[in-house]
Amino acid sequence: MAYTSKFAKYYDKLGWNDFSRDLYGVLKKYFPRRKFKYLDIACGTGVLAAKISQLKRASVDAFDISPAMIKTAKTKSEKVNFFIDDMVKFKKRQEYDVISCFYDAINHIKGLDHWQKVFENIHFSLKPKGIFIFDFNTLKAKNKWEKDWENKHNDYLVIWKNIGRKYEDKAIIKISVFLNGRKLFEEKFVNYFYPSNEIMFRLKS
After folding, report:
1. Which of 59, 110, 160, 193 is most deeply packed, by most CB within 10 A?
2. How would you label 29-58 residue by residue, b for 16+ Cβ within 10 Å and e otherwise?
3. pTM for this structure?
4. Percentage, residues of the chain above pLDDT 90
């Protein structure tokens, strides 16, 4: 799925980029000490890619399926090669030392056959000793998506509602964002969940 321009505009303002900043501290131990090539898949507003690009030994590419996200990301760094692409369909451009895919982005992909296609694309894009680092939610983790919640960040209020509780393997989330009581926008997205053993089987296939 591709997030809208309004979602991209307010993404960082709502504090959702904090995860990217925290993540860098964990990731850097996996970076080669020599020059290396890095690919960030589903890069969002580009915070993580821009941070990694500050390393002189890093050459960074990053893509997202959302044109609005990439437009915002390009304002973060001129060193990163940001482009629009689909993780299910992307073709090998070059070989990378490290490839990442965070923010549960792969959970937006419907069907384990498509997950496997993502894994294959990444495998073909890695150097022989390259590494792939990613996160995802399993079927067991679906419970945390069942709860509705509200969160305040500065003058913004975010209301998160699961409007798809009847489904066993997916969550349909509606996010409503307000500023000083005025509704700014609403966004819907779907996350799909699968058992961890099935995901691991696809990853190893």
Report:
1. 193
2. eebbeeebbbbbbbbbbbbbbbbbbeeeeb
3. 0.94
4. 79
